[in-house]
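Working notes for the structural subgroup meeting. M.R. asked for a predicted model of this chain before we commit to crystallization trials. I am recording the input and output together here so anyone reviewing the notebook later can reproduce the run.

Input as submitted:
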Amino acid sequence: MADTLPQDHQGFDQSLWSATAIAAPNYISLDGDETADVAIVGGGFTGLSAALHLAEKGVDVAVLEAGEPGWGASGRNGGQANPGLKYDLDELTPMVGRELAERMIPFGDDTVDVLFALIDRLGLQCDAGRGGFVYGAHATSALPTLEAKAARLQSRGIDAKLLNRDETAAMTGTDWYRGGFYDPRGGTIQPLSLARGLAKAAMRAGARIFAHSPAIARTRDGARWKITAENGASVTANRVLICTNGYSNLTGIAGSVARSVVPFYSYQIATKPLSDNILKTLPKQGVGVSETRQILTYYRVDAAGRFMLGARGRLSGSLDEPAFDRAMTRLRELFPHMADEPLEHRWNGRVAITTDSLPRVFELDDGVFAALGWNGRGVAITVALGPHLAALLSDDDRANFPLPIGPVREIPFHWLRRPAAGAAVTLKDYQDRRERDAG
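Returned structure, recorded in token form:
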């Protein structure tokens, strides 16, 4: 991961999740030459869920992870299981066609159910709580969209509802919002514990997971593919899955994959465990909260009573104190009574954004696939996609696959991503404030 900034290691080490997660399994590094039916590059939720479901099918699978499983976004995110896809059926149909759209909607509807069912089946210790998900409306103009979303979900038997201002304040703990939307399917987890639990389960099922084994090259070996690690060791496999998301540095593996997404840093802060008097003013444990703003804030309370909030920060990934200014500003705006609560943890992680907010599943070569671009909604969707990726990699089951599969779609002028991203953030923040001021 040569292009990963040194702060990224601190971003993992400094996180609340690193401090409170279950113990990691005893991983080994790749040493020598191995063979497998499937090689997976990337040990986050996507790769671990795919490896688990492949191993449970009896497929010989090997995972190469540059750090340790959960080191990237899977172990640093806000731990919110956000249900559904961004778009609904009528919006998806012109984008992907009616037949695929009709598979995508029920898949999106069920992702959180699949996640929590897997947690229950495997007995994963990841502080799972299912209190639902709330979107706070930053402006009155956002309410019609939320009302329409609630109506669509209700038509599919989901007990979602529009919230008035008082109801939103009761659920979020702040009166800043003009109203909101509640989806009962959502919930929260301890993300690094979930990643480590999935790794343990995959290893019990027979998967081999190699930590601290960054993959640097992919070459043909007859009809198979050889994935070579930084130390010269290798895995040769019939099929390959690449799932490195915002931490892609794949020049020798598939450089075009990294150019298909724009990585942003999300900055997060967490308090010490709070008193009962403070906690009763905040969202209940197990409830995830986000916003309708384009440059949004998200927050929740963890199992030990810490308040955690995430927001945009420096595009560079810097972890100096000013990089957390936006998160601190939002904390004071939303919860002024929390302004003086001491913070125990500050950290960041990369979110991979696509141009249309849809995930990407690419077929790079015969038997080589990549899955990434979760747009900040990856906790549930990546785990739920695992069985489908396993079916694709083992049985070439495309007819039931719930996302589009196609060639790599590079973002034009990707080398301009940082200045362009900075300009986009400034513009969207301005638009959010204009909408807020309008009512």
